[in-house]
Amino acid sequence: MMNHPGSACPRMAHTPMAHSKLGQAPGAASSFAAHQNSATMLAMQQGDAVTLAEQRSAPSKLAAQQGAALLMAMLTVALVATLAAAGVWLQWRSIEVEAAERQRGQAHWLLLGALDWSRIILREDARSGGDNGPDHLAEPWAVPLQEARLSTFVSSNAEGVSRDDERVAEEVFLSGQISDLQGRLNVLNLVDSDGRLSQSSLAVFERLFKSLDLPPTELQTLAQQMVLAHGTQVGRPLRPQRLEQLTWLGLSAQTMAALAPHVCVLPVRTPINLNTASAAVLQASLIGVDAAGAQKLVQLRDSRHFNTLEDARLRLDNPRAGIESALHSVNSRYFEVRGRLRWGATVLEERSLVERNGVDVRVLWSDRGQLAAPQREPLGRPFVQ
């Protein structure tokens, strides 16, 4: 078969074009390589830019890290300092509390020693005066003692006294007073031994309330409550043991303040000591004696105390005054001992009821309190004489 003359033409015609395309392939490869190189260069430039930026930002990051570390260190130091300060404060507080407790305990022992000394004074007074000897305001126990240093009563050369004891004795101040409670009206006298209201004692209290300008209704309430307190019925009021407990039985605070120097609460019925009673008590306990007569009686006994009730009757020169052995006496059994101790900022006060039977002196009760600072003038020189 013969080929058409034009059959080879396409092949021949396409061959140069193919050669031309083949001739163009190396140029494209070089162009692609150049493009890749430029992309690589661009990437390297970008990487260098990023590295340069990172290098430039590295100091700021380092500074931020250093600032955070410094802040943490400061917070740690502040926390440690706070904990240390709290620990030191707690330790200081415990030391102060322990020192205060120790000082208060020592003060209590000092007041107890002063109370024992007052008992010795009353015992020696009973020995010198006898069992039925008169008790009056010119005796040593009745002299109020002003505040004084404890060192004035402690010999520096005494055996067993150390330097610490001497230092404490220089810092401690004592004062006190012994009072005769039978120089006051005993509230228990309102009740007879059989538990009934004593009309004679009620009349005495009525005269006292009148002289002090106090409401008589409170006296009637007090008398009724005292009778009930000594009864046996259920729901009866408690028997008062202290003067301030009379408010339980109907006395107001104003009435209590006015009565405090003139009345007392003792465990048994007691007569009034004419040698130690105040003018108001004498006026109330004696019949037909006014304020002027009571003051005259006080002046008479101040010049010379009453040795017996008969001596008082003769010197009073008033046979209708009603001086009787059941209501009056010239000696006493019950005393109140008040002590006050001042040691730096600590002030302790103690009040005790003391009963004396012959030479036997015993404490019936004691009240003790602590004050933050001195609230009033001392009661007198210390009774530890």
Please summarize what this structure is.
The chain is of the alpha/beta class and 385 residues long. It has helices at 9-129, 163-171, 199-211, 216-229, 253-259, 279-285, 291-303, 309-316; strands at 145-149, 172-180, 185-186, 263-264, 272-273, 328-329, 334-343, 346-357, 360-371.
What does the model show?
The chain has 385 residues and is an alpha/beta fold. It has helices at residues 9-129, 163-171, 199-211, 216-229, 253-259, 279-285, 291-303, 309-316; strands at residues 145-149, 172-180, 185-186, 263-264, 272-273, 328-329, 334-343, 346-357, 360-371. Among the domains are: 106-183 and 333-371, 2-Layer Sandwich (Pantoate--beta-alanine Ligase, Chain: A,domain 2), CATH 3.30.1300.30; 185-329, no CATH class. 50% of the residues lie in helices and 15% in strands. The strands form 3 sheets. The protein has a 5-stranded antiparallel beta sheet with strand order 1-2-7-8-9. Helix 6 (279-285) crosses helix 7. The radius of gyration is 52 Å and the shape is elongated.
Itemize the secondary structure elements and their pairings.
Elements: H1 9-129, E1 145-149, H2 163-171, E2 172-180, E3 185-186, H3 199-211, H4 216-229, H5 253-259, E4 263-264, E5 272-273, H6 279-285, H7 291-303, H8 309-316, E6 328-329, E7 334-343, E8 346-357, E9 360-371
Parallel strand pairs: 3-4, 5-6
Antiparallel strand pairs: 1-2, 2-7, 7-8, 8-9
Helix pairs in contact: 3-6, 6-7
